[in-house]
Structure formats: structure tokens, C-alpha cells
Amino acid sequence: MSSTKLYRSKHGQWFGICQGIADWRDLPVGTVRLLVILIACFTAIVPCLLIYLLLGFIIPVNPYENDTENFRDDFENLKDKVNRMERNENKRSKEDSWDSRFHS
Q1: CB 27: neighbour CB atoms within 10 A?
Q2: Can you tell me the distance from the alpha carbon of 8 to that of 56, in angstroms, rounded to the nearest whole number?
Q3: pLDDT of 12-30, one tens digit each?
Q4: Which of 57, 40, 60, 58 is nearest to 49 (CA)?
Q5: What SS3 state is found at 6?
Q6: CB atoms within 10 A of CB 18
Q7: Which residues fall within 8 angstroms of residue 98, CB to CB, at 6 or more apart?
Q8: I need a surface site. Which of 7, 12, 35, 79 has the fewest CB within 10 A?
Q9: Are 41 and 34 in contact (CB under 8 A)?
């Protein structure tokens, strides 16, 4: 589905511009990337790269894109942290019980 407003994608390669243009015009992202590369080659590369970088700073990031991948990574990191805390707590309770045997 094409959008009425151009946004950069959060999941793009470099700044998400090609992905944003592909989403905006409902095109395959590979085609847009190929066009950008061809335009860069035929315009002596530097002007196209400057325009690309300028677009990277001007076009806003898509606020409607969901971050399910980032959420999944954050959830896995949180699970690992909780598991480490539980292991440390178990280790600490064993140390406390050992100390209580000798320091009653």
C-alpha cells in the first residue's frame, strides 16, 4: 500500500531512503536501489551521494513503522538479565545458608 507522505524507513540499509521511496511508491526496494546506483554512476557519483545524504537528514523517519524486531531483541535481553539475576540470587541464598550454619 502506498503512502501519501514520504518517510525514511527504520529498517533500511543506509538511512532507509530507498526503502522509504519504495514504500511510498509501492515499488520493490531492489529496483529503487538499482536506480539510485545507476543515477549515481551517470552523474559522477558525488552529486548523487550529496543529494542522498541531504535526503537522509531532511526526510523524517516513519513514525508508523512498528519496531517488532527491536522489541524482540529487547525482550530477549531482558529475559537474559532476569535469568542472570535469578542465578545470582540463588548463589547468594546458598552462601547465606552456609554462613548461617556457622554463625548461629
Answers
A1: 14
A2: 8
A3: 778 888 888 888 888 888 8
A4: 40
A5: coil
A6: 24
A7: none
A8: 79
A9: no
Q: How many CB atoms lie within 10 A of CB 35?
A: 13
The 3-state secondary structure of 9-59 reads CCCCCCCCHHHHHHHHHCCCHHHHHHHHHHHHHHCCCHHHHHHHHHHHHHC
Q: How many residues does the chain have?
A: 104
Three cell numbers written together for 54:
541531504
Q: By three-state DSSP, how is residue 55 classified?
A: helix
- Give residue 77's pLDDT: 76
How far apart, in whole angstroms, are the C-alpha atoms of residue 93 and residue 87?
A: 10
Measured CA to CA, the distance from residue 56 to residue 40 in angstroms comes to 16
% residues pLDDT > 90 (the chain): 1
Tell me which amino acid residue 25 is.
R
SS3 5: coil
What nine digits make up the cell of 10? 527504520
